[in-house]
Amino acid sequence: xxxxxxxxxxxxxxxxxxxxxxxxxxxxxxxxxxxxxxxxxxxxxxxxxxxxxxxxxxxxxxxxxxxxxxxxxxxxxxxxxxxxxxxxxxxxxxxxxxxxxxxxxxxxxxxxxxxxxxxxxxxxxxxxxxxxxxxxxxxxxxxxxxxxxxxxxxxxxxxxxxxxxxxxxxxxxxxxxxxxxxxxxxxxxxxxxxxxxxxxxxxxxxxxxxxxxxxxxxxxxxxxxxxxxxxxxxxxxxxxxxxxxxxxxxxxxxxxxxxxxxxxxxxxxxxxxxxxxxxxxxxxxxxxxxxxxxxxxxxxxxxxxxx
Length: 307
Fold this sequence. Notes:
There is one protein chain. By secondary structure, the protein is an all-alpha fold. 84% of the residues lie in helices and 0% in strands. The protein has one domain. The protein starts with a helix and ends with a helix.
């Protein structure tokens, strides 16, 4: 019995370890994603989102075909419950993409990063409300520090942060539906982009007819960058979907701080956005929150291994 328990614990630890690595990789890639959109300066946000959808579909489709997993696609499309979850998640994803690309193009990366600072708290709320997740003492302390940091960040921005709130709510809701959908990461992303294909393709056809040409697609540089949005979008989403099936939403929520922290640094160092003392204090508290939460998770994991 002891060996069975040890084997089971080892398998669970490997699953958590794999999920943690995937989550870290996803958020690191997301953190540097604004650079891609800055290089597409001048291309309309909706056009970028349409191309992201199409080229993500192609990229993931090739992966599924090469790996012989097309049966998973047929199974997902044939299941009404899965299809309904995928339809909702695809719409949430499209709104999130559009708001984020528009924020980057209009020089509001700091507020966009603020939105992803808020996102973990929304994840915690969803996890506690719908999935029955509970927090221990140190996790509660970490969340309380994050609440203070976000309140300070809101004061630094001034006014209602509509961009931030939109990004936080749509991505947290997307994570919930992806966690509850019975479909693999690659298949789920393929179905989501497939459902968005009529909107994306229809929009591009409309712009071609309206403008009497291919627009930015006629420029080799812009066409190449738009093609790049496919793997640049799909890779972190695949990693995220893999991670969210193996980690608690609250753990995913704390990892979420990596991407906005990178975007925050890009905004003030590369994009020339203004940094004030209020935002700097908030940034420090956010990282303190992450350190407390991570340290608690690490110590609890060591205790389980020792037991």
